[in-house]
Amino acid sequence: MKHYIYVILLFTLVILAGCSSSNTHSVKTESEESKDTSMTDESLSVFIHETGDSLPVTSFREIWGYVVAGEEAPLTANLPITDVGYFGAEVDTYGNLANIPRRQNLSSFKGRVHLVVTCNSLSLTYFTLLPGSPQRAKLIADLIAATKNFDGLNIDFESIPARSAEAYYSFLRELKAGLPDKIFSVALYGRIRATPNEIYNYELISAIADKIFVMAYDEHWSTSKPGPISSLSWCKSVAEYSMRVIGPEKLVMGIPFYGRAWAEQNHHRAYVYAGIERLIRTHNVKEITRENSTPTFNYVAQVPVKVYYEDEYSISARFEMYKSMNVKAIGFWRIGQETPKVWDILKLE
After folding, report:
1. Which residue of 111, 183, 190, 288 could cross-link 152, Cys pair, CB 3.0 to 4.6 Å?
2. Which of these is catalytic: 158, 203, 320, 338?
3. Who wins on pLDDT, 265 or 193?
4. What is the value of pTM for the model shown?
């Protein structure tokens, strides 16, 4: 036990040395990209060196995990999961609730199951959130009805126009009022500070919802520069802000199981004729054939690829860091994408 305390203290000191108050988080909706997090790599190296093959077993009061409909098999009875976010229903082109997963498919799971609902179109979200509109009234009624078969409702609307912020908050309030006996949760992007005209206002939304699932991942995303999905230093900043604004009783800190790959060049594009000629010269194309009169050729290009992913060491380091910060609940995107070793180092309190 003394050894683990020493590891946590050393790890926290190194993280603090690597964090800067000017560090800026970027997500799909923000223009600036995250700063270099090399100190995170150094701190993780210290953690790996100190723990070796004996990773600590970390405990939390609640452990959430998203499960995608049709991929229920990885959710086995022995996993220390208290809450499942069943992904997921969505708002279709006409503003109707569609693709509601069948709660019976998780009948063997003895914990709480939350219906997850997404709407990731800016224009569709704008029109379905309009106060007083029949589409909004019907969607709220359908969501309340669909949640009767579940323990809770999780709203995961990730594309909300700036002018719809107030409509979004009132939408959440109506849902909460219509679900007095259910757990009402909202998934929000990871943030390290409040920003002007913030749509996903932690303080306002946490005053409405029972739980806030902070998606502390996609620090770097598919169209950003390469980088960690959620570096330790960035996660620490997100957790500090979340704990301060949301508080430990409502907060669920999200952890990614997935990785990403970035290629330095993308060869999928349209070309003008001069560009085609450059390709032929650059790649020394010797043979041009025709298919139904259209000229065509092939060439082979080597593309450097950069990959970032999570293993049991990086996940364990995050467990220990959150535990030392008094985070009481964590959650995963998503069950089935993880290294199996993660379940050897995690338990419920």
Report:
1. 183
2. 158
3. 193
4. 0.86
